[in-house]
Amino acid sequence: MAWMQRRWALPAATVIGLVVCNMILWLPLPTELQSWAAVGLAILLPGLLLVNWLMGPHGDSTVGERFVFGVGTGVGLLVVLMLALSYLPGGLRFGMVVASFNALVLLLAGNVLAGHGTLLTIPRLSRDGQLVALLALLIGAAFLRFTNLGYSELHGDEALVALRANDVIQGWERALFIHKKGPGEILIGTAMFVLTGELTEFAAHLPFALASWCGVLATYWLGRRWFGPMAGWWAGAMVATDGYLMAFGRMLQYQSIVFLLVVVTVLAVEHARQRGAAVMRYGLLAGLLPATALLAHYEGVMAFVPVVVLLGALWQQAGG
Fold it and tell me: Of the spans 85-94, 114-123, 211-220, which averages the highest pLDDT?
C-alpha cells in the first residue's frame, strides 16, 4: 500500500469523509443514519486526525490503540468546541455548528498538506488467532451496546440532560452552570441535537454507546500490554458484560465517557513509560484526555491514581 504513505492520502480521505458526512446531514435521511454522520463529523474525523498529527507515522501503536485514542480525543475536541460556541451571544444553529466542525477538520488535515503533520500510516496488527478472539470480543460488546439502541425513552437524569441541551441551543447562558455535574454530557447531547435536527433516543445514546464500546477495546489493549493477550481478552470480556457499564453505555449519561477517558489516559501514560522518545507525544494525549473526563464529571480524577504511579516509574527509568 505504497499510496497510503503519500502525504496527500490523509487529506484526501478526510475530504471524502467530510463530503459524505455533510451530505447525509443536509439530506432528509433517517435519523439513525444522520446520527452516525454526526458522530463521524464531530468525533471520529477530528479525533483521528489529531491523534495522527500528535503520534506521527511511528509503528509504536496498533490500529486499535490509535482508534481508541482518536475517539477519546475526538470527544475532547467536541466538548471544547461546543463549549466555546455556547459562550457566543444567541443560540446555536445548524449552519454554525456544521461550519465549526468542518473548519476544525480541515484545519487538522491542513497540517498534513502544510508539512506540519504526518503521513497516513497503517500500524502493525497481529494476524494470528488473537485477532479472531479480539473480533469476537468486539462483536459481542457491540451487540450488547448498539442493538435496539433507541428503544428506551429518555427518563430521569437523561431527560434533564436533554432539557439542558435544549436550553444551550436556545442560548440560555446559565444552562451549563446550574447543572450539578460537568457540562460534557450536555454538550455532547447538544451537538447531536443540532446536527440531526432532533434529539431522538438513538441520536442521544449513540455517542455514549460508542464510548462504552471503545472502553472495552481500550481495556483489552491495556491489559494486553501489562499482562499479555489472554489477560487483556478476559479484562475486556468482563468490561463488555458488566451490567453497570453496559447499561450506562446505552444512556445519555457521563459514565461511559469518563470510563473510556480514564482507561485511555492510563494507556497513553503506559506508552510514554515504555518509549522514552515518545514521552511528549503521549504526554499531550494524557493531558487532554483526563481534562475532558473532568469536564464530564469530577469522577475523572480517578485517572490520576494510576497515572501518578506510572509517572513515578517513568521518573525512575529516566534517572530522576
Answer: 211-220
Length of the chain measured in residues? 320
pLDDT digits (tens, 9 = 90+) for 26-42: 999 999 999 999 999 99
Q: What is the maximum span of the chain, computed from C-alpha positions, in angstroms?
A: 60
| pLDDT tens column, 125-160 | 455 678 888 999 999 999 999 999 888 788 888 889
* Residue 77 parent element (H or E): helix 63-86
Radius of gyration of the CA atoms of the chain, in A: 19
189: helix, coil or strand?
helix
- In terms of C-beta distances under 8 Å and separation of at least 24 residues, what long-range contacts does 159-164 make, across chains too? 161/185, 161/186, 161/189, 161/252, 161/253, 162/189, 162/193, 162/199, 162/204, 162/252, 164/189
Phi, psi (5° rounding) for residue 149?
A: -65, -30
Q: Are 292 and 75 in contact (CB under 8 A)?
A: yes
Contacts of 282 (CB under 8 A, 6+ apart): 55, 268, 269, 271, 272, 275
Residues contacting 269, CB < 8 A, separation 6+: 282, 286, 306, 307, 310, 311, 314
CB 10 within 8 A of CB 181: no
- Which one, of 313, 318, 304, 284, lies nearest residue 76 by Cα? 284
Grid cell listed for 217: 477495546
| Residues 6+ away with beta carbon under 8 Å from 244 | 255
| Consecutive H or E run containing 169 | helix 157-170
